[in-house]
Structure formats: C-alpha cells, structure tokens
Write a structure and sequence with these properties.
Pfam families: TauE. Helices cover 77% and strands 0% of the residues. The chain has 244 residues and is mainly alpha-helical. Helix 3 crosses helix 9 and helix 7 packs antiparallel against helix 8.
Length: 244
C-alpha cells in the first residue's frame, strides 16, 4: 500500500504542477494513471475531488480576472452535460472496457489539441453555439472521465488574449462543474471511507504542486508545458489501452 500511495502522490504532484503552469492538465494526466489502481468511476471521483483544490488554489490567486458574464452560457451547457454523464457513469463506470475507452479518448484529445489551430470567425464567436457545444461536451466528458478540460481550454483561449483571464475563468468552470458532479455522487452514496487517506494526502500534494506551477506561470511559455503534457497523456493513454 505504501508503494501504491507513493506512486499516486507522484502522479497528482506532476498533474497539479502542469495545471498550475498551463491552466489545465491535472485531470488529463491523473486519469491516465489513476485507473490502473482503481475503477474508472472511483478514479474519476477521486480526481474530481482533488481538482476542486487545484482550481481553488488558482482562483485564490487570480480571482480579480474573473468575468462572470462570460461564464453563464458555457456553465449552463456544461452542467447539462454533467447531469447526463452522472447517469452514464453510474450505469457503466465499473465495466473494464471503460479503461480502454478512456485510453482511446486521451489519445484523441491529444490529436484534438494538435489540430485545433484553426480559429472560428469573429462572427461565430459572438453566437451562443460555440460556448454551448464546448460547454456541453466539456461537462459530459469531464463527468465521465474527469478530463473535459481541453474543451474549455480551447474556448477560453479563443475569447481571452490575457492569460490571467484565461486561467482564472477556466478554473471557475472546472470548480463549478466538479462541485456539481461530486454533489450528485454524494447524494447517490458513491463515496466510501477507504478514499479518505488518499484524499488527505492528495490535498497536501496538489497544493504543493499547484503552488510550484503558479510560480512558473510567469516564467515558462505555456505552449511548451502543454506540448509536454500532450506527450505524457499520449503515453498514459497507450498504457491504459495495452495493459488494462
């Protein structure tokens, strides 16, 4: 158990550091490895709970850059996706094939990020369809796999040139979505006391990782960190496909 705990600590430390620097990546990285120790459902709940701490740490630093009006539509769409994901996760979360599906999904996310250089027109950005689409799929995928972040990342990179606004508003969406999903699962009785030790150790670890990441936020190009994260996520996805 001690070896397992140490490996999990390293995983969430690296994941929280990546999110501190780039604004996202904790769920992507952690969900590439945590399901090797727990079921997909247990892993998603564990990662979502720790994601609250990661997001709260970043919000605490950058809260002055939050623009509430820009969040209303995408939050509404994402919460709708989370509700649907809640029922699907309860129905299929314990099935072994979900780990292979997750591995394929992680790799597809990497391709999505690599091929998402073409930006929509300014006219399209003014419509509601963009935040609705990215919000729904971000909430849906995040509710099942705890890795819906790339959809929100792409949206906020499109509408914000200021990296502090991008990061602060992105964390608000993560925080609200994860809180909503955890409340649903809590009411459904999906939590158990066996995760308490992992969670307590995890909270301390993600605070350390996020703090270190935030210190690098102003120094390293975000694109460099994102490229490194994509390589790691690809390897994690292949690991799940081959060995699960």
């Amino acid at each position: 158990m001690l070896t397992e705990l140490l490996i999990i600590i390293i995983i969430i430390l690296i994941g929280s550091f990546i999110q501190g620097v780039s604004g996202f990546g904790f769920g992507l990285f952690a969900m590439g490895f945590i399901p090797l120790f727990f079921s997909v459902k247990e892993s998603a709940l564990f990662v979502m709970a720790l994601s609250l701490v990661v997001s709260a740490s970043i919000i605490f630093r950058n809260y002055k850059h939050i623009l509430v009006k820009s969040l209303l539509i995408i939050l509404s769409a994402s919460l709708t996706g989370r509700i649907i994901a809640f029922f699907i996760l309860n129905a299929y979360g314990e099935m072994d094939f979900m780990k292979k599906v997750l591995g394929l999904f992680l790799i597809s996310i990497v391709f999505y990020l690599l091929l998402s250089n073409k930006e929509p027109s300014a006219a399209m950005l003014k419509t509601h369809i963009i935040p609705i689409i990215f919000g729904f799929f971000g909430g849906f995928i995040g509710g099942i796999f705890a890795v819906g972040g790339p959809f929100f990342v792409f949206y906020f990179l499109l509408i914000f040139n200021n990296k502090y606004r991008y990061s602060a508003n992105l964390q608000v969406v993560f925080f609200v979505n994860n809180t909503f999903s955890l409340l649903l699962h809590g009411l459904n009785g999906d939590f158990n006391s066996s995760f308490l030790l992992y969670f307590i150790v995890g909270v301390v670890t993600v605070i350390i990782g996020t703090t270190l990441g935030l210190k690098m936020f102003d120094r390293l190009p975000r694109e460099t960190i994102k490229k490194v994260a994509m390589i790691i996520v690809s390897l994690a996805g292949l690991n799940l496909i081959i060995f699960s």
